[in-house]
Design goal:
This protein is of the alpha+beta class. The chain contains 15 helices and 24 strands. It has 3 domains: 28-161, no CATH class; 184-348, 3-Layer(aba) Sandwich (Collagenase (Catalytic Domain)); 357-601, Hemopexin (4 Propeller). Strand 5 (254-259) and strand 6 form a beta hairpin. Helix 2 (39-51) crosses helix 5. The model is unreliable at 1-54, 77-82, 84-108, 151-169 and 556-564 (pLDDT under 50). The chain binds zinc ion (2 copies). It holds the Pfam family Peptidase_M10.
């Protein structure tokens, strides 16, 4: 039996027929010969593939063909006696490896070889010449994931199968059905490498899982049971043959692969780089964190991508990935891209955390203000437009660090001249005043009842433990919501300082403040979890559980959001509409398992 399976269990599905930049024209010669069916021309073409291909030696051609077979580019076709004859008649002094994986028994189809080379070149963003040259061989020699890149449908026509352009192939979901029908998955470090530190490796594995948990509704937990097969995912370090359909090939080449959709095998003989940070540009080393993120991607159902910067590119496991051939490229972090996130969510569902607050957070920048939308759920804060990675509450607002594990509302009030901002966070009976630029506290926690509560002779005060709050920039009033009631409050004095004990401009039922549209699909549910005033079009969003409603304050207001993270909504002013599910409007809110500090740690 061959060392390599003809049809590996996990095969990346690649779409090869899409056109886009960058495009490389195929050489005229290759086109004319490839289209011919005459045996003689095929032989000439194959000969030219060798002789024009920048002087590859016999051994190098064998190596390349073995690579193409191993990684799914030449699945059903074998080199023929022709290659033997060509190799034997050449002047190369390379020793022919009698133990080569090339099976010489059946006919080589030179057209398929050229196609296979072209496809490989497409995946590695090389000019698609279809010729075996030194650049192509060099790319084949880079370390990589051992899962095959492509499976080609032999029933389709040649013309349809032949790639025309070197187009980045987007990552696709593997057609292989996964056995994970749960969102809670366990993992086990089944076999350690004696060359590595177990704690360090465990930390990296946890980090890799938490990166996926940050972008998809998945939870991963470690199990320590010694018994094999006790975890959904088993991770182990192996060398050579290792009770698996594949065998490892020592340093370089196949660095890791998945097995039976439940195991990650890592080649113990690789030089593994454990640094969690930007990797060293070291040739031959394998970046363990990226390797783990990549292989977990396979287990979740992803195939390979031909985007060099994708974590699912076969070379992404390298400390020095193929991307670095581009002079301007930087080493990618182990971040999961939009395509991968979209595909994984299509399979495992959307992310639907319970939202505590949403705010267009403004901060001073130079002489003006900038703003971004922040969504808060328990200890996590997502900045919209920055992917699915949340910051911790204490990272987004350092003044709250260690003081709160959740907020009821965050709001900013603007002075009448627009020059001063006051930033407040509310939690239970307390509120906090923060610096708008740094998020640091300007004073210690104060009681809501003391400063905004009902005073003798007054009918109302701002209650404690509010459900939601927002600042209406058109009216310049703050709106606090608890139960079915809204408390409208003029928060700022003319000098820009906080106005206290002056409740309220208005105390009104929510259904009077937000009259529902006649065609409203779902009545508002209280208590609310959050309220959000979108400053770009003065739309108020009311959020309860997994549902949201919206109310356009301005007549003629339209959705002017340009944020790709938010959906567009039909706007009808002064009426409350049911908007749909929270995850349809705020799309990048996943697990809070690994809130980190991207804003301040860079
Ligand atoms: Zn892979
Ligand atoms: Zn294996």
């Amino acid at each position: 039996m061959s060392c390599y399976p003809r049809l590996p269990l996990l095969i990346g599905y690649l779409l090869l027929l899409v056109c886009g930049a960058p495009c490389y024209a195929r050489p005229a010669k290759a086109l004319s010969t490839v289209d011919s069916n005459e045996t003689q021309n095929r032989a000439v073409d194959f000969e030219s593939a060798i002789s024009n291909g920048s002087l590859l030696s016999d051994g190098e051609v064998r190596e390349a063909v073995a690579y193409l077979q191993k990684f799914g580019y030449l699945n059903s076709l074998e080199p023929s006696a022709q290659i033997h004859a060509l190799l034997n008649s050449s002047n190369s002094t390379d020793e022919i490896d009698s133990g080569s994986d090339i099976d010489n028994s059946t006919a080589l189809d030179s057209i398929d070889l050229a196609e296979a080379v072209s496809k490989f070149q497409a995946v590695y963003q090389l000019p698609m010449t279809g010729l075996l040259d030194l650049a192509t061989l060099a790319a084949m020699r880079e370390g990589r994931c051992g899962v095959a890149d492509a499976q080609f449908d032999s029933s389709s026509s040649r013309a349809a199968r032949r790639p025309k352009r070197s187009t980045p192939i987007r990552v696709e979901m593997d057609a292989e059905p996964r056995r994970f029908d749960t969102r809670n998955l366990s993992w086990r470090l089944a076999r350690m490498s004696e060359r590595l530190n177990r704690n360090q490796v465990t930390k990296l594995i946890r980090r890799a899982f938490s990166l996926w948990a940050s972008v998809a509704p998945l939870r991963f937990s470690q199990v320590f049971n010694e018994q094999e097969g006790t975890a959904d995912i088993e991770i182990g370090f192996y060398r050579g043959s290792h009770n698996c359909q594949r065998r490892f090939d020592g340093p370089g080449g196949d660095a890791a692969h998945t097995q039976a959709a439940s195991a990650i095998h890592i080649d113990i003989e690789e030089e593994l780089q454990l640094s969690d940070n930007r990797p060293v540009r070291q040739r031959g080393a394998v970046h363990l964190l990226r390797l783990l993120v990549h292989e977990i991607g396979h287990l979740l159902g992803l195939g390979h991508s031909s985007h060099l910067s994708s974590i699912m590119h076969p070379s992404s496991v390298n400390a020095r990935p193929a991307l670095l051939r581009r002079p301007t490229s930087r080493v990618p972090a182990a971040l999961i891209g939009r395509d991968e996130i979209r595909l994984v969510r299509e399979r495992y569902g959307p992310c639907s955390p319970r939202i505590d607050a949403i705010i267009d957070w403004r901060y001073e920048l130079g002489r003006g203000f900038e703003s971004y939308t922040r969504v808060v759920s328990r200890g996590s804060v997502w900045t919209q437009g920055r992917g699915g990675y949340p910051d911790s509450l204490g990272c987004a607002w350092p003044g709250l660090d260690g003081r709160l594990d959740r907020v009821d509302a965050v709001l900013q009030a603007e002075s009448p001249d627009g020059r001063a901002l006051i930033s407040l966070a509310f939690s239970g009976a307390e509120y906090f005043v923060m610096n708008s630029s740094t998020g640091a506290l300007l004073s210690s926690a104060a009681r809501i009842s003391a400063d905004f509560g009902r005073r003798t002779g007054e009918q109302y005060g701002i209650p404690e433990s509010i459900d939601a709050a927002y600042y209406d920039y058109a009216k310049r009033t703050a709106v606090f919501i608890k139960g079915d009631w809204a408390f409208e409050y003029d928060l700022l004095q003319h000098n820009g300082s906080l106005r206290k004990n002056n409740c309220c401009v208005r105390h009104v039922k929510l259904n009077r403040m937000f009259p529902k549209a006649p065609n409203n699909l779902k009545p508002l549910v209280t208590p609310l979890d959050a309220a959000y005033y979108r400053r770009s079009d003065s739309t108020v969003f009311l959020i309860s559980g997994q549902d949201f409603w919206y109310y356009a304050s301005n007549i003629g207001a339209v959705n002017r959001t340009s944020d790709a993270d938010e959906a567009r909504l039909p706007a009808q002013p002064k009426l409350l509409h049911y908007g749909g599910k929270v995850h349809q409007q705020w799309r990048n809110l996943c697990s809070m398992a690994d809130a980190r500090c991207s804003l301040h740690s860079g």
